[in-house]
Prior knowledge:
Chains A, B: It is an enzyme of class 2 (transferase). Chains A, B: It catalyses: L-aspartate + ATP = 4-phospho-L-aspartate + ADP. Chain A is α/β, with parallel strands linked by helices. Chain A is about 35% helix and about 25% strand. Chain A has an eight-stranded mixed sheet, with helices on both faces. The two termini of chain A are about 30 Å apart.
Amino acid sequence: MKFGGTSMAGTERIRRVAGIVKRQQEAGHEVAVVVSAMSGETDRLVTFCREANPLYDPAEYDVVVASGEQVTSGLLALHLQALGCKARSWLGWQLPIRTDEAHAKARIEEIDSAALLASMAAGEIAVIPGFQGLTADNRVTTLGRGGSDTSAVAVAAAVKADRCDIYTDVDGVYTTDPRIVAKARKLKSVTYEEMLELASVGSKVLQTRSVSLAMKENVRVQVLSSFIDESAPPADSLPGTMIVSDEELEGLDMERQLITGIAADKNEAKVILTRVPDRPGAVATIFSPLAEANINVDMIIQNVGREHTDTDVTFTVPASDLDRTKALLDAQQATIGFEKMTTDAKVAKISVVGVGMRSHAGVASTMFKALADRGINIQAISTSEIKVSVLIDADEVELAVRVLHTAYELDGA
Amino acid sequence: MKFGGTSMAGTERIRRVAGIVKRQQEAGHEVAVVVSAMSGETDRLVTFCREANPLYDPAEYDVVVASGEQVTSGLLALHLQALGCKARSWLGWQLPIRTDEAHAKARIEEIDSAALLASMAAGEIAVIPGFQGLTADNRVTTLGRGGSDTSAVAVAAAVKADRCDIYTDVDGVYTTDPRIVAKARKLKSVTYEEMLELASVGSKVLQTRSVSLAMKENVRVQVLSSFIDESAPPADSLPGTMIVSDEELEGLDMERQLITGIAADKNEAKVILTRVPDRPGAVATIFSPLAEANINVDMIIQNVGREHTDTDVTFTVPASDLDRTKALLDAQQATIGFEKMTTDAKVAKISVVGVGMRSHAGVASTMFKALADRGINIQAISTSEIKVSVLIDADEVELAVRVLHTAYELDGA
């Protein structure tokens, strides 16, 4: 079980979490719990680090910020004890959770589960601070923001858990954002690949890394709400959304649709370079400097000009990187040889996602037709095996999501 | 060097501490720094634990409250780095600082100084969170409130430091409380025994345990102010008060007075039991139940009655334990056989302290005469090798301290 910062923010909420955890133990499960810091605490600690030194040493930054999860893990153990459960905290260095040496964005390499399994077998609930780990030379690391989801999946893999339940402030994964489409339906299940596509295009339920890890380790992940009624039936009735492998999905949800969900991402910006010389290596001169600057280029479209001597190149970058992108390309204009650069931050990416489209043709054309029927102009297109994405005007994003939700027959009652 | 919570309370103050530490390194010293949590932080964390469970598990309490010092140790390392120093934090479990298993009030057993010495020899400033340690089975412990002073002395002993500088919010140890006697003088030096007597009778400069440890390990401790001018001469000129052994004291301070200081303690309460039967074991029936209840009895005076069949017994306990003391003795009235119990919380203990009194007679009589001359009534007397204490009315404490400060010729210019 994993609980985020909102669920751990203060005595009353931690007490509530303890109640939810206790019910799982009473239902016959051995339980390990991974916790985030109280919401706001990590920000407070990061601010202290920045004030100390804007170019802070990430090793010492990790010592400071890892303390937030240490506090909540001890407190949840105390709350569980107050409810009569046996419980103890296991800090990252105590298990240990071994990571690489990339401080402030470490990756988990190995979790020693021996002590954990012995403790759980003895009826103790194990409470583990998320987000933190230990290098080979015994220094504290953290996994980067949102890393507690990854901690939870890694612990679940290490103890070979039946399930990793991630309690969030939403009650599952929906066909699309319910704030945009009132008829959005909660999904019983999605595959890892679908969740990755949904996560990376703006559905902020789970950290992408945690889903990748779950896929790699084949951990069954359930997303569900931490604001459920504590007196409700135990979570074995799976009230949330299960994230599983392709194979398992068949058994869980026979009646699933061709398309699993529709995601919208407004944090994109479009860049058009006109009249780029059409010669070998020209495109590399555009994207190499961006890659070196760690700017993540997403959609790329190349329109060859009529005379086949030059082309227009359109691509998208995160809106927050647009200014840096412009500066880098302006500096390289002579080398690249483009005529003009135009940019537009008022764009949005809409994606339809579903493993079903592997075996069904016509998914993309349904999308294009539905949008055209409502006069929504498509500025760029990209596809993957289980996803079709289009770039449209940001003003039309809500309309487009609603139109597509209906077009793919996702609307609930 | 050790800095308390007031010195570590926020970015600006930690930056100031970093400057003081850097100046010591620039003066040619290898430096280890022990830090407390930001003032208020430990209270905040303790409150969370109490809210979780009033009868909290001290092992989990330790996990929670140890985080405060972890934060400040990382932050001080960052601030030192920002000033161009090499610095790193060493958490209690990283060195490790081994303690017994008495969670929330652990005692340090051993500090492995190998890594610390290697790091310091390489020019790195070692920053160590105070207050925390590690049991043999790798669980976090804390040393009890004020334990960071003890951590500092223990680290100084482990690395065989030339000196342990404890920065506090006073600039040294005075002949008496300067708020009571304007002419109180700062002492250049006191012995461990004197400091213990001064600390235990209300001079709250250092935690008693840290002084005991310094005496046992023969660590030279300097008390000085963390609010010194950073541009002042380096601390080698010893601006504070040195706490040293008897032997070393001679060399440091030839001109010292017979009496080192005068301490006042208002946190005492007096209990009088009248007509206790004068038979063997009678006194034990009074004090055994108090000892079992962990109530610390201080002064005890027994006045044998005129007929030698019963006696009056007067003693003092901490004022905070007076109600429990009354309840315990009331319950035992028949067993003890006293006639009446009277109590008085409006008393104060005045002590004159000095190693010089070992070789000088007349110290006590000077005290009694000076107080009598001003009409101050002595309610009880106790003495040790280097201390004479009297119990007086609490209203007369300031007057008594001033009278004695003059009588022992301690007044400064």
